[in-house]
Amino acid sequence: MCAVQRIVGLVVAVMAAMVMGVACSQSHDYGDALNKSILFFEGQRSGKLPSSQRMTWRKDSALRDGYEIGVDLVGGYYDAGDNVKFNFPMAFSTTMLAWSVLEFGKGMSSDLPHALDAIRWATDYFLKATSIPGFVFVQVGDPYGDHNCWERPEDMDTPRTPFAVSKQFPGSEVSAEIAAALAASAMVFRPIDLKYSARLLKRARMVFDFADKYQGSYNDSLGPWVCPFYCDFSGYEDELVWGAAWLFKATKQPIYWNYVLQNINKLESSATVKYINGVSYLGGSFAEFGWDSKHAGINVLVSKLIMSMAGTGSTPFISNADKFICTLLPESPTVSVSYSPGGLLFKPGGSNMQHATTLSFLLVVYARYLKLSNRVVHCGNVVASPARLVKLAKGQVDYILGSNPFGMSYMVGYGKKFPQRIHHRGSSLPSVGQHPKQIDCKGGTDYYNSKNPNLNLLIGAVVGGPDIEDSYADFREDFVQSEPTTYINAPLVGVLAYFNSRSS
């Protein structure tokens, strides 16, 4: 019997050692991933590239944006694998980059200057896009013409039509998100460039006033061009509150705080049913966050202000932030997201990795706020400590970096195995340095259809990710899975900076 026990004990010990070995082999270099996640934004740049450009296969592009109407709209970012500048998701990505630096900049070390460059590339463009009072430019490029082609941004011959909102044709969601981006960025630059910071803040206030005074959705005036690409599905009220919250954080002026308090109840919509792979899930606006819905972000952002302010009265921010956390925890009785067998978080909508990164960002930020105020979250009988929130976020980040059933990093250039055929025009086509001759609209079709790996590495790009069964096909044509976006990467920058500081 003792011999049997010794054998069993030996087997258990060997299995434990094997598990430990796997765990060790799946440890991740968050600093390397952070560096690459920021580098990705250089691959998305539009306009005249600087001498400091590190993604050298990219060259100058769209150097005449806006010139046909006498406005300089050169610069900014392409949102994903296409060559259109959609300012709504670009502004959200900028806000998230700025928030990442404000929360976790100390964990970025030598990558911080590159993060600041990534933010400034966007804010310089937004200063141009908001330079004419009474107008906010919200898009450059005809999306239908662009999506009908597969060509490098350096070669674009599709219409670069500028689209703007105005007093007569308002667009409060995109204008208020730009205001939020400018206000958050003003805080980032305040310690290092006070003049630039003041300029950003002044413009943020002007654009917010425009968004609030002339309320309406850009769906109504620009729907044929912004939908279905970045149609506003959640209404513009959340962006107005979001913008006001960032302006209060940047200015401490009561007018913006009062705006938040007076308008937050407009966001308290009834619960809605959404479907994931045919299964219904109950959720409310408080559980949503991304380029379209700012609800959970508002509650988390404002919760810190509430915790530090006395006499604020009864507000829904902390309770809604807590409820939001309870929708994410697998053990919570009110969980409303689903998880793949390998542990990746899923919510309705395409490009699922955006949910994993944005919600992980809110998890680590709220964990910090809870720790500072010595609080925990109660989900029925389940008690979630700040450490539990961090653990859940870490599981998402590690999954993205390769701790998953497929054994693949979903960040291009990180790890030994990563997506090779991403849905990205510039990455899939030969660079201008290799192929100086123009590749016209349909000239890239063979590259699109090719089963060969992309010719240029868009290092740091995080793709839309696997399906809910952890399966990933690595096909260029499957854009839901294989296309990277700025709003997947932007919140991940902050999360990686957080875990990099912890590991170092």
Automatic annotation (TrEMBL):
One of its GO terms (molecular function) is cellulase activity. Its EC number is 3.2.1.4. It catalyses: Endohydrolysis of (1->4)-beta-D-glucosidic linkages in cellulose, lichenin and cereal beta-D-glucans. Keywords: Carbohydrate metabolism, Cellulose degradation, Glycosidase, Hydrolase, Polysaccharide degradation, Signal. Residues 30-496 form the Glycoside hydrolase family domain. Residues 1-24 form the signal peptide. It comes from the Eukaryota. The active site is at H423, D474, E483. GO terms for biological process: cellulose catabolic process. Belongs to the glycosyl hydrolase 9 (cellulase E) family. This is Endoglucanase.
